[in-house]
Amino acid sequence: MSPCAGITQAGRRCTLVAQASSGMCWLHDPARADQRHRHASKAARSKGNREVAALKEEIKTVIADVRGGDLGRADAAVMIQGYRALKDFIALERQVKETDQLAAEIEELKREYGAA
Q: Which of 4, 84, 85, 91 could form an SS bridge with 18, CB 3.0 to 4.6 Å?
């Protein structure tokens, strides 16, 4: 088994085992770039989706507590403001991840085509 012919982002030779057909590992094989992108996109979204689902459940609890008289409206309003801030940070985090992924893909393309 031969090592991958790819170069890491740190500029070193990749140490993973190459696939015989391409001479590259799964992470560096250009033929698998679309597949890697789809996997990365799903991974980036999955954490945010769990956080959004958790926030949604907490907000439903706040609403139920207000309706049941267990939580005052003023306290609930402050909590909802906090949830909105969390929601905004989740969206920001997702945008940053997407931007970082795109930047990495652009750099990879530049290296592959000798533009860098």
A: 4
Q: Which two tokens stand for residue 20?
A: 């015989």
Tell me how far CA of residue 84 lies from CA of 66, 68, 90, in angstroms: 18, 23, 10
Q: Does this model's pTM top 0.90? A: no
How large a percentage of the chain has pLDDT more than 90?
32
Q: What is the distance between the alpha carbons of residues 89 and 95, in angstroms, rounded to a whole number?
A: 10
User: Which residues, in sequence order, are CB contacts of 84 under 8 Å at separation 6+?
Assistant: none
The CA dihedral of 67, 68, 69, 73, to the nearest 10 degrees, is -30
Query: How far is 5 from 109, CA to CA, in rounded Å?
Result: 16
Sorted by sequence, the CB contacts under 8 Å of residue 99 that are 6+ apart come out as none
